[in-house]
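Quick illustration for those who missed Monday's session on complexes.
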Amino acid sequence: MKQFRAATTHSARPGDGAPAAALANRLLTWYDRHRRDLPWRAQPGESADPYRVWLSEIMLQQTTVATVEPYFRAFIARWPTVGDLARADLQSVLHAWQGLGYYARARNLHKCAGVIADSLGERFPDSEAGLLALPGIGAYTAAAIAAIAFGRPAAPVDGNVERVLARLFALTAERAAVKREVGVLAGRLTPSGRPGDFWQAVMDLGATVCRPRGPACLMCPWAGNCLALQRGLTEELPRRARRKAKPVRHGVAFWAVDATGAVLLRRRPEKGLLGGMTEVPGTEWREWPWTEEEALPLAPVPGQWLSLAGGVRHVFTHFELELTVLAATDLVPGLAEGMWCRPEDFDAHALPTVMRKVADHALRALAQPSAPPEAAIGPIRRRTSGPRPARRASSGR
Ligand code: SF4
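Prediction with iron/sulfur cluster bound:
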């Protein structure tokens, strides 16, 4: 096995007495025995495939390994190279991404594959700077690909890494200061030999040993150096920033059903939230609830619209959405814009999770055996009595 060399001879942190090289060697020895076997990882002794590393890193943003694994396998089976992905049409990529959320990532994935195929001869840049210039690749992802796929001494710092290092060095400051300090320490810790394995080892340690709650310190290769363990701070660190309540937006979704049971769907604009995905037609999403008088003129087809009891709630990164669902059945398709699709065929469309929730809600409410649709409906939410915001919220699209 290649001998590990430390990039620096600094102590990992003044006062802890553990040279960076010793910490890295200890962790790499642990990694060689306990590494997770993940479908995007190279086997020991093999070189990592930049395409697999990039694809997995994009998929893993905001998502767990367990969720990503089947998506990753499906993408690789369907598009084995970055060129294959570049030649796929965007709709099929969005469809395959369905359920992973944060759909802008899928659009950027496709765009990035296009740039690599068209301008770079299907080869990924091998430096952080070159990677950063590509669509959808930020500082973390560029560092991860540079280290894992190209052996560059780059330091990808995400929440997991932040947690592990905040504990190892007992960083007790507030979140922003800890983030800065972790960035510096991560750079010092990065070995020049096996930097990719080193950071994958930190990721594995964070996922399996130095877990957010209940870290398994007895199993930890860094237990002898861990300042949080020595000081009884493992459960307290890292300090968490107090979460701000997310703003709430409101919208109305129109569940339009024709005489054959087909439902009206449409494509969202390419740009913006859920861009290019399929949706149940609806109003814009704004900061205050809709009234019946406001919403009904925006229905996509004339009909007897009824408000379904309850509603749909969905949490996006920056806001929570509350949707009222209006349903109308036996409609004459007429000139409605969009496509009519039976619910059993929805899988053929790139429906994001929030629209799946709308479909489930509508189907459940309309199928109530004990009550005809009219009995299952309630009045559309009236505008609340508080003052109305002076300015309309952006549509979020
Ligand atoms: S000793 Fe415990 S708290 Fe410290 S790094 Fe290891 S698992 Fe995390």
